[in-house]
Amino acid sequence: MTKRFKILIVDDVPKNIQVIANLLGDEEYDISYATNGQQALGQIDESRFDLVLLDIMMPGMDGYDVCRQIKNRQPENEIPIIFITAKTDEESLIEAFEAGGQDYITKPFNAAELIARVKTHLKLKAFEDSQQIVIDNALAELKVLNKEIIETQKEVIFTMGSIGETRSKETGLHVKRVAEYSRLLACMSGLNEVEADVIAMASPMHDIGKVGIPDAILNKKGRLTEDEFEVMKTHAVIGYDMLKHSDRPLMRTAAIIALEHHEKWDGTGYPEAASGNDIHIYGRITALADVFDALGSDRCYKKAWDDEKIFELLKNQSGKHFDPLLINVFFENIDQFLQVRFEYKDIF
C-alpha cells in the first residue's frame, strides 16, 4: 500500500492555502492547513507531517520563527520545510535557510515547479525515513549483541574467578557475593553506576592468581609458615601479571583489583605496602568485600565467624586494614549487605 504523505500548508491568507491545496489535491496527499504560527505548531505537536509549506509574512509569529520552533521541537524528526513567499530579496532567502528551511519558492510561483519540488522533497524525506529505520534496527541489533557480549564476559570472568576459589576449596558463590558487595560499596561511596558495574564484573578475578599457588599451600589446614605465607602472597602479583596486558576497561579494573585487594589502609598490606588513598579505590572496595565474606564463610583453615565477631573486627580495623569511609558506608547500609549474603548463601 502506497503511503499517503501528509503536508501542512501555513499561510495567513486562506485563498493562498486553497490555491496550493488545489494544485496538490490531484497528487493524493493528505493536506492540513494553518493560518498562523501558533496553529501550525499545535498541529506539528499533534501529527507527524512529511512536509511543511510555509509563508514568511504572517501576523504575530513570522515564518522564520515558526521554522525555528519546528526544528527545536522535533529535532529527531527532520521535517522538510519549503518557504513560499513574496519576499524576493537575498537577505530573506539567506534568513530562511539559516532558520532551517530546505527550499525557497517565490510568489507568484509556477504550478509545475511547485509540484515538482514538493515531489522531490517528499522522495528525499521517504528515503531518509527508510534509512533511519535501517539505522534504528541496526542499532537495536547492536544493543542486543553488546548485551550478549557483556553477559558472556561476565560468565567468563565469574568462571575464571571461580577457578581460583575452587582450587582453594571455596564455593563459586563467594565470587558472586564479593561482586555484589563491591557493587554496593562502589555506588554508596559515590562512584557512578557504570563504574560500579565494572567493579562488580571485575571483582570475581581478585584471587585469580591463586592458580599459580601450590595446592599444598593453598589448601593447607592450619596456619601457614612464614615461608609458605610469602609464597601465598605472590598470588596478587601473579593475578596482576595475568590481567595487565589488556586495554579493556574491565580487564584493567580486574588487574588493579588482583594486585591491590590485600593492601591495607595503614600500609601493612602486600604486595607493595601501599597506604591510604594511594591504594586504588577498586582495591579498597574489594578488600572490604572479600574480608567480610571470608570471615562469614567456612574455609579449610577456619569455621565461619558469627556476625557480632565480624562486625567487631571490621570496626576495629577501620583506619588500619580498611578505608574508614568505606567502613562507615558498610555499617550505614548493613541490611543491604546482609540481604546479598542471604540471597547467595552457600548450600552444602
TrEMBL record:
It comes from the Bacteria. Pfam families: HD_5, Response_reg. Residues 149-346 form the HD-GYP domain. SUPFAM superfamilies: CheY-like (SSF52172), HD-domain/PDEase-like (SSF109604). One of its GO terms (biological process) is phosphorelay signal transduction system. Residues 171-295 form the HD domain. One of its GO terms (molecular function) is phosphoric diester hydrolase activity. This is Two-component system response regulator. It comes from endosymbiont of Galathealinum brachiosum.
